[in-house]
Structure prediction request, 414 residues.
Amino acid sequence: MHELHMLKTLHPIWLNRVVQSMAKGASVREDLRGQLDQFYSLLEQAVETGDPAWLDPVISGWAESLTQSDLEGDTSNLTEFLNELLQLTINICRETLDEIQALEVIGTIMPAFTFAYLKAAKYEIIAHSGYISRQLKETQQALERLDRSKSDFIAVAAHELKTPLTLIEGYASMLCESHEKVNPQSSEMQLLNGVRNGTVRLRSIVDDMIDVSMIDNNLLSLNFQPVWLNRLFVLLQNELKDSINERQQTMLIEPFPGSDELTFGDPERLLQVFRNILMNAMKYTPDCGTIHVDGRKLPGFIEVTITDTGIGIDPEDQTIIFEKFTRLGSTSLHSSGKTKFKGGGPGLGLHIAKGIVESHGGAIWAESPGYDEKNLPGSTFHVLLPIRAGSPDTKMAKLFEPLGQNKLAQGWAG
Ligand code: ADP
Prediction:
């Protein structure tokens, strides 16, 4: 074949020219010479057999040797390299052969180069996506490590705070008792009450930190007992009555279908869930607003909804508020009160609520048209709880068996 012969004649000239113009240092030149020699020999094979796939091994080898910095950039290093190679080959043909011969050789090698381009693009995409997924995995691992160290910090801090807090609580209540007997109206008594209130608040924060570390380490154990949701809401309504009155808010609790039916759950933990949501509804709703508790029975589940007429939550924040330490509002207002308007806390309440609901096999989520302090679009928190006919804990199940069998489903009229 005439063109193949010309191609073979060009081999040493091509190799010297290409190595000279592409490689800078002597060591690089030697290394590149071997690779380019192999490329040219395979190009000859491809032309001889009419099968461009001969070039595959050398192209995949080049793609594999792409460096970290090649992959970091968004340029196509391998296809650019092939471009340069083709340009040099065309120049060499033009300079060494007459016009017709040059055209013949270029026409013969073009299918092989097209194949090389396609393969290079494919291998480069594979190499880039491999690099990106490695990067993603590393970032995910770093985030997991960060989250673990956050959880470890919470566990250690809560444990370290517990002992001195218990001491302060003990001494403060002893002082209170002795002063109360002597002079309950004294100014010391007022100061001691301040200390007592502070320790109560601190105790609730430390307890929340302990709950978070239990949830994050999958150590939360539930004490399954018969539960009627309407009873929980009556208890909470009484507990929050004074704060509701103080804020001139209205709390409406509907007797929704399923709320008076027996199910099994951890009543203390469920109270904590609904307390956190109701107190948030109060905190993020201005004075005179309304908090509305409703729900419905679904196949196998009860869904409770708590709707407020408050400041609302932007759609992009509706998931992150369930992560620990999420604070959307100004931090200057934080901890200004448990039910004061926008008096946020440490950002643990919803994370704990989510952990408890999910441990029950349920789900919790928030919906709101958005955040708007002027128009007050409000928010709705949904809690989906599975209806259980018995306790998953076998000992407890035995104890409450008669209750489950009789299906005291009518509950308590409240
Ligand atoms: P915090 O202790 O700050 O109240 P939470 O975990 O209970 O922490 O809530 C996280 C964040 O979610 C709050 O800081 C607040 O920005 C937002 N949030 C919770 N409930 C509501 C609500 N009903 N309306 C508007 N925003 C809310």
